[in-house]
Amino acid sequence: MNLVRYADLVLLAIGAAVAIPLGAPVLGYAIGAGTWLLQRVVQEADKRWIAKVDKPVRRAGYTLFEAFGRIWLLAGGIIVAIVVGDRADALTAALIILGAYTVAFLLRISSGPPQGQPAR
Fold first, then answer.
1. SS3 call for 86
2. C-alpha–C-alpha distance, residues 48 and 1, integer Å
3. Hey, is 54 helix, strand or coil?
4. How far is CA 7 from CA 15, 68, 70, 80, 91, in A?
5. How far apart are CA 110 and CA 108, in angstroms?
6. Which of 1, 48, 84, 118 has its CA 20 to 30 A from that of 110?
């Protein structure tokens, strides 16, 4: 089950093995994958931090703030790719982030309600 939990990261590794030899910009791939890995680290740290919050309303607010913050982090990665590299790097970073986000989103909605929360 842990492999499924990290399917987005497996996708990054497989994607690198396929895309880079086919000519994808290495800088764009590295920035996209690095940004995705960074947001996953932030997600895990924030999950532990938010779990310690007692009040449900405050927890919901922190969760919302954290989710939007990670989206802005991903958008910032794409901006960095175009500033440091060029359009091809930014497109590659955006596609890597989109692919990893899509896999993570599909896994999240298919896994049901979060553990520790009653289903309604």
1. coil
2. 20
3. coil
4. 12, 22, 19, 25, 22
5. 6
6. 48
Task: Give the span between the Cα atoms of 10 and 17, in whole angstroms.
Answer: 11
**CA–CA dist 109, 72 (Å, integer):** 21
Tokens of 26: 């290495």
**What is the separation of C-alpha 68 from the centre of its chain, rounded to a whole number of angstroms?**
12
Residue 113 has a pLDDT of 76
Q: What is the pLDDT of residue 6?
A: 85
36 C-beta neighbours (distance < 10 Å), count: 24
Range list of β-strands (E), the chain: none
Per-residue DSSP letter, 21: T
| Residue pair 31/89 in contact by the 8 Å Cβ criterion | yes
* Inter-residue contact 28 to 36 (CB < 8 Å): no
